[in-house]
Amino acid sequence: MAEASTPPLRHIGAAVRGPLIAIVLGFVAAAVLVLLIGKDPLEAASALWRGAFGTPNNIAGTLALATPLIFSALAFAVAFRGSMFNAGVEGQLIIGAFLSAFVGFSFDGLPAIVHIPLMLGAGALGGALWALLPAIWRVGLGANEIVTTLMMNFIAIALTDYLVLYPFRLPGQSGSAIRTESVSPSAELPSLWPPYNVTIALPLAIFCVVIAWYVLRRFVVGYEVRMVGSAPRFAKTAGIPPSRHMIGVMLISGALAGLGGAAQVGGVFNAFVSPFATGLGFNGVLVALLVGNAPLGIPFAAVFIGALQSGAIGMELTTSISRYLVAALTATIIIFVSARQFGGRRLPWATVARVRSREPQTEAKGPADGTGA
Questions:
Q1: Shortest CA distance to 125 belongs to which of 165, 154, 83, 97?
Q2: How confident is the model over 21-32, as pLDDT tens digits?
Q3: For residue 86, how many other CB atoms are within 10 A of its CB?
């Protein structure tokens, strides 16, 4: 029995070795920066921990920050597994958020059991449609999806800013933060931990993670997606249409991002607020990269990044160390993760060139070479 369990344990150890090394090195680099400005690294670390987990309110804030990151990270990971680099998660999240807000405040008198699924469905639909265009351009015209999805982010921001500033602006507002009218109470997501805004979106996000992992590992379509991601020419030779799967994973990716936006509308803001995302999509990409796009690792990485962001505020208040140190820490960790290899494991950025070239590197081995969840 012990011998049978060794390979899985060895696989798990290899999977977490790189991120753990990167996190340790990132904290070492941050400690050096803290020393250089004349502060105590241990005091800073303690303040960071208390800011993230020191009180129930802080814990709730960390979980609330982690929830949209799970959606956006999973959105990126699913697309990446299917050979698509979705740099437009931010825009898809924003479009999904706006459509969910529209459904939330446009329909009154609906029971919550109907209104909440409608609002979430509108968010998923908006994100999916926003991701569909770059997918079609990639398959039909050969346009690089990194460029097109990235540009679609700016279009999404400009479009929703216009809609909130003019046709859907709540009257009587002034200042830099403009919002639509609030969604109906029947569209607000129930809290799992009153009075905090840890809503049902959190278990929904984890449910999506489990489903994505199970489909990718246990279903034929998941096998085909992984084959398209690791060896597209080999997949085509085997009778698997890469174009269909590329469009499919982008639709799913956009829907997941849109759900993240809907979760923010229904559980945090109760309206669409401009500016809205403030990096939720891009931070989700960082979360996915941190765990090598493995779905089951995403919730843990999202809580880690959420804790850094939540704890940074408390650290700044109690130690006068700028919260931007945490941004530098996060960037440093991602830089280390992005290195070509940690502990013998090839990490995501090291394979981007291979994915972009669409060259099958190990046709004889097939998709079993892909990284596991």
A1: 97
A2: 888 889 999 999
A3: 30
How many structural domains are present in the chain? Answer: 1
Query: Average pLDDT in the 72-86 region?
Result: 95
In a domain, 370, yes or no: no
Q: Look at the block and give the residue holding tokens 């804790």.
A: 307
Q: What is the pLDDT of residues 42-55, one digit of tens each?
A: 999 999 999 999 99
Q: How many CB atoms lie within 10 A of CB 310?
A: 26
**Can you tell me the distance from the alpha carbon of 136 to that of 285, in angstroms, rounded to the nearest whole number?**
22
- What distance, in Å, lies between the first and last C-alpha atoms of the chain? 23
- DSSP line for 37-102: TT--HHHHHHHHHHHHHSSHHHHHHHHHHHHHHHHHHHHHHHHHHTT---TTHHHHHHHHHHHHHH
Mean pLDDT of the chain: 86
pTM: 0.86
Q: Is 320 exposed, middle or buried (CB count within 10 Å of its CB: 0-12, 13-18, 19+)?
A: exposed
Which tokens sit at 62? 């960390």
Instruction: With CA atoms as reference, report the closest residue to 88 among 23, 154, 144.
Output: 154
Of residues 237, 211, 240, the one with CA closest to residue 226: 240
Instruction: Give the SS3 label for residue 131.
Output: helix
Could you identify the residue written with the tokens 């085909």? 224
State whether the Cα torsion 218-70-194-272 is positive or negative. Answer: negative
How many residues does the structure list for the chain?
A: 373
In a domain, 12, yes or no: no
> pLDDT digits over 271-311, tens only?
999 888 778 999 999 999 888 899 999 999 999 999 999 99
Which run of H or E residues covers position 4?
A: helix 2-36
Residue 105 lies in a domain: yes
Give backbone dihedrals phi and psi of 191, rounded to 5 degrees, phi first: -85, 140
Confidence of residue 9 (pLDDT cuts 50, 70, 90): low
Beta strands per DSSP E along the chain:
178-179, 273-274, 341-342, 345-346
Q: Assess if residue 213 is contained within a domain.
A: yes
Residue 307 lies in domain: 19-31+46-357
24: domain CATH number? 1.10.3470
